[in-house]
């Protein structure tokens, strides 16, 4: 194989994606107002979605977030996924491959469920994640809310302070 054979499929483009420093200014409008523009895309009301995003960013589990927002845990997970939160799928990489095979018609649902070892709800959420991409404008609107605040991480560290070992204890 020659160098020209290796480079045969390579294309050079003149466009480059702008990768500047992201600027998020959440002072103009509150989160609920920003999410209202996406009410037709969100699986729940914008007020519930705002609660989901704010509580999840503070370290609360999806189940607890759903209870606080008065929505089903599946709805909270779908909201997080559409807002760009990675890791919402309950399946690992191999399980996601099995779901993709099922979506492509290469496996029956029964076989795919057996192979993944997922419950019906987990399989349904994984299928949703595989068939719905995050909405770019919604991701941008939710970005500030999903970024953990410094005070939340300080509060978590203080709550766990008793369980941490001081480096001087090892000397």
Give the low-confidence spans: none
Give the radius of gyration: 21 Å
Distance separating the two termini: 60 Å
- What's the overall geometry? extended
Judged by helices, strands and strand pairing, the structural class is mainly alpha
Main β-sheet, in a few words? none
Q: Which percent bin holds the helix content?
A: 40-55%
Mean pLDDT: 83
Number of strands: 0
> Roughly what fraction of the amino acids lie in strands?
under 5%
Q: How many H/I helical runs?
A: 10
What string gives the helices and strands in order?
A: HHHHHHHHHH
General description of the model:
This protein has 171 residues and is mainly alpha-helical. It has a domain at 30-147. Helix content is 54%, strand content 0%. It is extended. The mean pLDDT is 83.
How is the secondary structure organized here?
Layout: H1 3-6, H2 31-36, H3 46-57, H4 62-69, H5 73-82, H6 93-103, H7 109-116, H8 120-131, H9 136-146, H10 150-159
What attributes characterize this protein structure?
mainly alpha, 54% helix, 171 residues, extended
């Amino acid at each position: 194989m020659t160098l020209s054979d290796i480079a045969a499929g390579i294309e050079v483009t003149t466009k480059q994606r702008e990768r500047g420093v992201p600027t998020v200014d959440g002072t103009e409008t509150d989160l609920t107002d920003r999410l209202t523009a996406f009410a037709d895309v969100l699986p729940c009301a914008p007020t519930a979605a705002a609660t989901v995003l704010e509580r999840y960013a503070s370290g609360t589990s999806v189940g607890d977030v759903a209870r606080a927002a008065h929505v089903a845990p599946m709805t909270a997970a779908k909201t997080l996924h559409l807002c760009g939160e990675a890791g919402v799928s309950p399946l690992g990489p191999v399980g996601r491959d099995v779901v993709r095979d099922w979506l492509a018609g290469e496996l029956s649902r029964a076989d795919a469920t057996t192979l993944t070892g997922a419950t019906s709800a987990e399989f349904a959420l994984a299928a949703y994640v595989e068939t719905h991409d995050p909405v770019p404008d919604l991701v941008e609107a939710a970005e500030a809310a999903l970024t953990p605040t410094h005070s939340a991480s300080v509060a978590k560290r203080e709550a766990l302070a008793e369980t941490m070992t001081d480096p001087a204890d090892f000397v």
